[in-house]
Specification:
Elements (H helix, E strand, L loop, with lengths): L7 E3 L15 H14 L3 E3 L21
Parallel strand pairs: 1-2
């Protein structure tokens, strides 16, 4: 098998009320990144921002004006 020709960004899942999924554990993420790096060296682990306002990783929060 050859190398994957892609840049891969690993972004953590942000938990919010009503979400039916759970984020992967640290060890699972580490193993996943390691496997990707074996096939393709260009792997970046991103750190989430905006979680405090429910806007992390593209999840924008809707708020009503009061």
């Amino acid at each position: 098998a050859g190398r994957i020709k892609a840049k891969v960004n690993i972004i953590p899942l942000n938990v919010f009320p009503g979400l039916k999924f759970q984020p992967s554990g640290e060890e699972a993420v580490r193993r996943f990144i390691q496997r990707l790096q074996e096939k393709r060296g260009d792997v970046t682990r991103r750190h989430s921002r905006g979680e405090d306002i429910a806007a992390a990783c593209g999840q924008l929060a809707g708020r009503r004006a009061t």
